[in-house]
Specification:
The chain is of the alpha/beta class and 368 residues long. It contains 13 helices and 16 strands.
Length: 368
């Protein structure tokens, strides 16, 4: 491959209704507001990417992601050699502080286009380790009755790995987990995610209360910036602790390792700015012996498929939480992945192995 220029970057802001509001400790989401990106290379090959911004996590909204893509990234990316993409990523990271999901949209689209040009699935281009994975399915921060109802419904669909959101009232959180375990039994793999909802003292108390319920790990129990508190929880918790919002960049991963602040790291393409930085985080975690999970925001099949391809190309990734697309009423992206229960399979085809339906895209388009 030579002389593959990024000829065009098309940008599509969208607002996609969800099946139900999704509540976590950081707030409630009612619609998926995102920006899709399509790269066209000089040979006509196209690739898709997605920005899934979240003000509380990436510091972006769809409007800021759209503005950065249109006015900063697009003029810098157009006309560049796609094969020399590392130069483009380095430049974007140098001149644009933050805006990780906007960067991820173009990063994913370029990776998709290059893999399609090569006639390979994206994970094969990245160094495929496995071809399918197990993903958790998530229950939001609901009351006890609704938590049980949703957990039962997922279990009846064949879900064997489940995540329950916590981080609200600590006593009620413990009772919700107790109820799920008692109702669904011991064959269910169970994780919890506090989304920064506790103080270090509260988190340690809750982890000790949850110990009898066979919890695989707890994600981000304290504020993302409180690495001392995170380290204190990890030191005193009987349940392994995973850093999520505390790790956006390779530098963040190094700091978590240096402080021994977590037992595991959750890598999300939308936090890291795409595949290129996520690979660096995975390398740091592997060198430190910290298992990783690849997680997601609420995303279409574009972002989810990219996460799956990344996850299946890195041996340090032991867990996946890639169910964000299952919360959407409609999805303009077709193909990519297939989920049955907790089994998530990558569909055959080059790149992300998906297409975007123009008519569906039109119905969910946002008009700034």
């Amino acid at each position: 491959m030579s002389g593959l220029m990024i000829q065009k970057l098309d940008i599509y802001p969208v607002k996609i209704p969800m099946l139900r509001p999704f509540r976590i400790a950081l707030g409630t989401v009612h619609d998926h507001e995102a920006v899709l990106a399509r790269v066209t290379l000089s040979d006509g090959t196209q690739g898709w990417g997605e920005a899934a911004p979240d003000l509380a996590i990436t510091g972006e909204t769809w409007r800021t992601a759209l503005a950065i893509l249109e006015h900063e990234i697009k003029p810098r990316a157009t006309g560049r050699d796609a094969l020399s993409y590392k130069e483009l990523w380095n430049e974007l990271d140098r001149v644009i502080l933050g805006h990780a999901s906007a960067k991820a949209a173009v990063d994913i689209a370029v990776h998709d286009a290059l893999a399609r040009h090569a006639g390979l699935p994206l994970n094969a281009l990245l160094g495929r380790m496995v071809s399918q994975l197990e993903t958790t399915q998530t229950v939001g921060l609901e009351d006890r009755g609704e938590t049980i109802r949703q957990a039962r419904a997922l279990h009846e669909q064949g879900v064997t790995r489940m995540k329950i959101k916590i981080g609200g009232d600590s006593r009620e959180d413990v009772e919700r987990i107790r109820a799920v375990r008692q109702d669904l039994g011991d064959d269910l793999s169970l994780t919890v995610d506090a989304n920064q909802g506790y103080s270090a003292r509260q988190a340690i108390h809750v982890m000790k209360k949850l110990e009898p319920f066979d919890i695989d790990f707890c994600e981000q129990p304290v504020h993302w910036g409180d690495l001392d508190g995170l380290a204190e929880v990890r030191k005193n918790s009987p349940i392994p602790i995973m850093a999520d919002e505390s790790v956006h960049s390779p530098r963040d991963a190094l700091e978590v390792v240096r402080r021994r602040a977590a037992d595991m790291i959750n890598i999300k393409l939308m936090k890291s700015g795409g595949i290129h930085a996520a690979r660096q985080i995975a390398a740091i975690a592997e060198a430190a012996g910290l298992p990783c999970m690849v997680g997601c925001m609420i995303e279409t099949r574009i972002g989810i498929s990219a996460g799956c391809h990344f996850a299946t190309a890195h041996s340090i990734v032991k867990y996946a939480d890639l169910d964000g697309h299952t919360t959407l009423k409609v999805d303009p992206a077709k193909g990519g992945v297939e989920v049955k229960g907790s089994k998530e399979k990558l569909l055959e085809g080059p790149g992300l192995a998906l297409d975007v339906d123009a008519s569906t895209l039109k119905t969910v388009a946002l008009h700034p």
